[in-house]
């Protein structure tokens, strides 16, 4: 942390009144000109009435990079009227209905329609933000990023984090100021994740609201009930494709496979379901397929499909019928793979269907997993052949990154393929317990492997997270101690990766499991609850963290007594959360009490004492008592170095804290010297791609900015951004922080940037600077 400071001694130039008033007079003139210019722009862009919408040109494209809609690589058949209606809703600024819900059963092409609409909007210059509606926390995170891309300021976010306003309110207030946009909430099949508090979704107080004229909220969902979505909503139900359009989908994918009439016959047989049509076209177009014509494929569907849904045009909008149509469509592909010796394609597909929706590391499916689940003999070459065969017939997809490039080592099932295969497996297999047990053993081993891997090889941990949740929830696996250990291990790995959102979920799972299995007062349960509270603090949910720490401290005092190390840890955690929430006096009192107890119980150089002294010094920095903070950090640095060594993380943390205290005292040179030492040590001990190295590099860059050394600071920010992009990815919060820091530092060096920076310093003098 870099802190602005106040000093009792003035620099030489500040003693010349004429120079001082000249500087402030110049700044006042600049500020007035900028204000008048801003009003002129507001008038030009937003008109004289209303809330002065933000110009589209102000939308930050980098922040929206990962919210990019999927690309459309084929014509969208039979949905022209729906897409045209959506365009009219977006174009007409005075219509009341600003929420559109495209609904239909699985496989009907809802996402394809939304993607086509997004492409049309982008061609007209409308910013588009695509949000996959996976769960409540990710939906909230993406909506905040949309608002930031549309100009939401840090002050508004801080106000929401502090609980002064609703986060959803802050986001929608910013969207109301933006002239035109399209937000797509894709696959919102569980509308409850978009609610706010205990209120219903249709009251529009959560993430689904009627936007101001100019914006359109487009939702794809299987939920067709208009009452669920509330007033101002246009519900568009997708029907199966007519024979002509369905035939065109087949001909687009396999133009040499037959005539228009033959394609129409097959389209009718498949119920006009777009997903089934594309799967059929993929099959007949593949060089290795047994049937290369529409007529041959239609005959091969066999009597089972005909007796199930009738020879006439099936009603594929019925969910059960849709599932049957699609399953029989790809059964041909699986049978063909088996006939050609790829015997593991079907069991591999079934194993993947029991995992979560989302990317699966290919390395997760091993021959041992297949053998333990199915009893079949399996080799690595057989598993590889199964993956290749499933990919050929489009039963597996390869996920792409923000730029659209495929991500090696990952595969994903279409959600409907996953759903139907899992349902079919449940109905056909009596030995599901063996499948579930095999998955539990494999996820435990996979997480253990990740924990023991090099830091650069730990990116797979995030992909294992959703699958662990699903496997742990399977009936036979509840209470599995190995899975509980896997949860704890993965939480530790993701904590070091600073993936605190997922750590919070895992810590909550573990606390609940221990409370149920060994009791709510067991020390292990209390440790899990403590970790939940700590993670809430990392997520800036400080009031929730304070409440959780208070409850846990009360329990630990009752169960373990006031002098137990865990009780001191709870008191320390409570104090740190209170300090972050602004309750510095109570925080300082608790930490002084804790430090005295630690010295009395464990001595001056015990781990517990070192931690408590560090926390107390940190609160002194927050209270701007820099002399006391510096003295404690020096003492802690000395003890850490003597007992643990100069390169121990505790010593490096104390060194960083001392640098913050020196910066507060105005000793910028001393602070920078310590920052350089910390960075050198992190590079030597952890390497260039360790999270602590990233933090040390950022701290040095911020300190250099305080001295106006922006050229070197920019170089450090650029290195951090490059490394974090490679190691963490573009969507990680730390990567985005590096990007913001680099943009800010570069802005200072642009023409006019120095004056803007000087003006910001005058306004923020004496305020803590994060």
From TrEMBL:
Keywords, ordered alphabetically: Membrane, Transmembrane, Transmembrane helix
UniProt feature coiled coil, ranges: none
Organism: Streptomyces purpurascens
Domain Orc1-like AAA ATPase: 76-192
InterPro entries: AAA_16, NLR-like, P-loop_NTPase, TPR-like_helical_dom_sf
Bilayer-crossing regions: 19-37
Entry keyword annotation includes Membrane: yes
PANTHER family associated with the record: AAA+ ATPASE DOMAIN-CONTAINING PROTEIN-RELATED, ATP/GTP-BINDING PROTEIN-RELATED
Protein name: Tetratricopeptide repeat protein
Keyword Membrane belongs to the record: yes
Lineage, highest ranks first: Bacteria, Bacillati, Actinomycetota, Actinomycetes, Kitasatosporales
């Amino acid at each position: 942390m870099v802190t602005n400071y106040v000093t009792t001694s003035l620099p030489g130039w500040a003693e010349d009144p004429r120079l001082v008033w000249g500087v402030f007079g110049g700044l006042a003139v600049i500020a007035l000109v900028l204000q008048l210019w801003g009003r002129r722009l507001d008038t030009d862009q937003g008109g004289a009435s209303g809330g002065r919408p933000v110009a589209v040109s102000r939308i930050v494209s980098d922040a929206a990079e990962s919210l990019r809609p999927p690309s459309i690589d084929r014509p969208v058949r039979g949905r022209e009227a729906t897409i045209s209606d959506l365009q009219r809703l977006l174009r007409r600024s005075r219509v009341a209905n600003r929420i559109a819900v495209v609904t239909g059963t699985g496989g009907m092409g809802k996402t394809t329609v939304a993607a086509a609409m997004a492409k049309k909007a982008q061609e007209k210059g409308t910013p588009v933000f695509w949000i996959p509606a996976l769960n409540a926390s990710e939906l909230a995170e993406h909506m905040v990023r949309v608002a930031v891309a549309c100009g939401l300021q840090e002050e508004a976010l801080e106000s929401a984090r502090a609980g002064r306003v609703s986060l959803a309110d802050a986001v929608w207030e910013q969207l109301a100021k933006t002239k035109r946009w399209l937000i797509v909430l894709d696959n919102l099949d569980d509308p409850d994740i978009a609610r706010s508090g205990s209120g219903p979704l249709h009251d529009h107080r959560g993430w689904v609201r009627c936007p101001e004229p100019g914006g359109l909220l487009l939702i794809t969902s299987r939920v067709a009930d208009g009452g669920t979505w509330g007033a101002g909503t246009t519900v568009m139900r997708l029907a199966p494709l007519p024979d002509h359009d369905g035939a065109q989908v087949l001909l687009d994918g396999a133009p040499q496979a037959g005539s228009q009439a033959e394609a129409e016959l097959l389209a009718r047989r498949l119920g006009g379901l777009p997903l089934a049509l594309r799967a059929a076209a993929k099959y007949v177009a593949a060089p290795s397929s047994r049937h290369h014509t529409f007529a041959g494929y239609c005959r091969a569907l066999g009597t089972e499909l005909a007796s199930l849904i009738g020879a006439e045009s099936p009603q594929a909008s019925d969910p059960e019928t849709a599932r049957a149509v699609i399953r029989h469509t790809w059964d041909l592909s699986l049978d063909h793979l088996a006939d050609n010796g790829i015997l593991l394609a079907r069991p591999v597909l079934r194993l993947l269907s029991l995992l979560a929706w989302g990317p699966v590391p290919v390395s997760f499916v091993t021959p041992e997993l297949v053998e333990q689940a199915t009893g079949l003999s399996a080799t690595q070459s057989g598993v590889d052949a199964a993956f290749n065969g499933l990919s050929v017939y489009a039963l597996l997809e390869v996920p792409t990154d923000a730029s659209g490039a495929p991500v090696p080592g990952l595969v994903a099932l279409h959600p409907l393929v996953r759903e139907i295969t899992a349902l079919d497996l449940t109905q056909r297999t009596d030995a599901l317990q063996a499948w579930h047990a095999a998955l539990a053993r494999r996820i435990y081993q996979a997480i253990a492997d990740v924990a023991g891997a090099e830091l650069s090889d730990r990116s797979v941990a995030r992909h294992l997270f959703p699958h662990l949740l699903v496997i742990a929830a399977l009936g036979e696996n509840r209470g599995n101690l190995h899975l509980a250990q896997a949860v704890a291990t993965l939480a530790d790995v993701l904590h070091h990766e600073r993936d605190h959102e997922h750590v919070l979920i895992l810590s909550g799972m573990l606390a609940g499991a221990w409370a149920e299995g060994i009791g709510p007062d067991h020390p292990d349960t209390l440790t899990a609850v403590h970790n939940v509270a700590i993670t809430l603090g990392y997520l800036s949910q400080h009031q929730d963290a304070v409440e959780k720490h208070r409850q846990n401290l009360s329990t630990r005092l009752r169960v373990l007594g006031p002098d137990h190390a865990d009780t001191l840890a709870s008191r320390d955690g409570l104090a740190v959360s209170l300090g972050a929430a602004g309750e510095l006096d109570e925080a300082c009192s608790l930490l002084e009490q804790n430090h005295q107890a630690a010295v009395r119980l464990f001595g001056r150089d015990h781990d517990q004492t070192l931690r408590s002294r560090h926390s107390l010094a940190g609160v002194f920095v927050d209270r701007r008592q820099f002399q006391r903070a510096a003295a404690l950090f020096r003492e802690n640095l000395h003890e850490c170095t003597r007992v643990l060594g100069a390169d121990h993380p505790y010593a490096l943390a104390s060194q960083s804290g001392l640098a913050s205290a020196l910066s507060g005292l105005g000793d910028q040179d001393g602070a920078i010297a310590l920052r350089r030492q910390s960075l050198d040590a992190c590079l030597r001990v952890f390497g260039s791609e360790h999270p602590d190295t990233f933090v040390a590099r950022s701290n040095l860059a911020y300190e250099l900015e305080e001295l106006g050394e922006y050229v070197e600071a920019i170089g450090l920010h650029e290195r951090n951004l490059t490394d974090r992009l490679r190691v963490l990815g573009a969507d990680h919060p730390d990567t985005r922080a590096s990007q913001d820091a680099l943009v800010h530092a570069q802005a200072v060096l642009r023409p006019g940037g120095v004056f803007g920076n000087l003006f910001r310093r005058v306004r923020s003098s004496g305020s803590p600077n994060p």
